[in-house]
Amino acid sequence: MRGAKSVCLQQTTKACLSIFRIKTVEGFQYRMAGLAGASTSIFWVLIEITVYTIFYTYADVSQAGIAAGLDLKQIISYAWMTQLLFLMQPMSIDGEILSKITSGDVGIEMCRPIDLYFHWFAKTAASRLTPLFWRGSVTILFGMVMPASYRLSPPASLMGLACMLISSASAFLLCTAFGMLTCAVRLNITWGDGPTYIIMLIGGVLSGAYLPLQLWPGFLQGFLLIQPFAGYLDIPLRLYIGTMPPGDAVWAIGIQIMWTAVFIVIGKLLMSRRMKSIIVQGG
User: Are 239 and 167 in contact (CB under 8 A)?
Assistant: First the structure.
C-alpha cells in the first residue's frame, strides 16, 4: 500500500512539474502584453511617487511616514518593487481553470489520473510567474534609470537582499496557495464570480499593495504583520528597504510558510468536499 502511494505521489509530482513547465513556456509568448502592462505599471508608480512626495513635503512630520520609520527614498523604492511583487498576487482565477468550471469541463478534469488540486496549483503558479519576466523586469529596469528623485534605490544590504529573495519565493507559494483556495470556493458557486473577487481584493489591500502597511495606524501594526496577506509583498519589501533587519527574517518567513501550509490544507480539504457534490455547469 505504501509503495503504491509512493508511486502515485511521484507520478503526480512529475505531471505537475511538466504542467508548470509547459504553462510557463506558453506564457513567454505574450511579450507585447507584458510590455503594455509594464507601461501601465510605470505610469502608476510615477503617480504614486508624486503623491508621496507631496505628502512628505507638506504634511505634518509627526503624522507622516517618518514616524513609522519610512523616509521618502524608502517609499519610492517600495512603490517600484510593489509593481514587481504585485504580479504574483491572485487578482483573478486562472482563465483556463475558470473556463473549465463554468463550461462543465471540470468533469473531464476529475477523470484525469492526477490530483486535481495540485494539477491546478501548477497551472496557477505558472500563470503568475511569467508576468514577472516581461512586465516586472521592464518596470524594475525603468525604475533603475529614472532621475534621482524618482529612482529605485538599491537594497539596504546584501543580506537584506538575500533574505528578500527567499521571502519572495515564499510569497510566490503563498499567493498561489491563496489563489487555489479561491478556486475551491468558486467550484460550487453557480451565480457569478463576485465572492472570489471580493476575497482577492481584500487580500490585495491587506498586502500593502495600495498603501504600505507601515503607514497604517500604529495600533494595527501588530495585526498587520502577522496576518497572511502581509506575506504577499510587505514582508519581502521591508527586508529590501531595510525597515526589517535581516535578523528578523527567520520568523517573518516562518509566518509566510505557516500561512501557505494553512491555505493549502484548507483549500485541498474544501476542494475535496465540494467535489463530492459539485454541480457540473453547462454539462
Answer: yes
DSSP reduced 3-state for 208: coil
Place of cell 503558479: 125
Phi-psi region of 69 (alpha: psi -120 to 50; beta: other; left: phi over 0): left
Distance CA 188, CA 276 (A): 10
pTM over 0.90: no
Q: HEC profile for 87-146?
A: HHCCCCCCHHHHHHHHHCCHHHHCCCCCCHHHHHHHHHHHHHHHHHHHHHHHHHHHHHCC
221 Rama sector, left if φ>0, alpha if ψ -120 to 50, beta otherwise: alpha
End-to-end CA distance of the chain: 36
Question: Within 13 Å of residue 246, how many CA atoms lie on the same side as its CB?
Answer: 12
The mean-pLDDT minimum among 12-16, 124-128, 138-142, 220-224 falls in: 12-16
Q: Is the dihedral of CA 22, 23, 29, 34 positive or negative?
A: negative
Residues 253, 90 contacting (CB under 8 angstroms): no
64 with 48: CB under 8 angstroms? Answer: no
pLDDT digits (tens, 9 = 90+) for 222-278: 899 999 999 999 999 999 999 999 999 999 999 999 999 999 999 999 888 877 766
Q: Find out whether 268 and 187 touch, Cβ atoms under 8 Å.
A: no
Cβ atoms 81, 237 nearer than 8 A: yes
Distance of CA 260 to the CA centre of its chain: 11
Q: Give the residue among 182, 184, 216 at the shortest CA–CA distance from 198.
A: 182
Cell, residue 103? 463550461
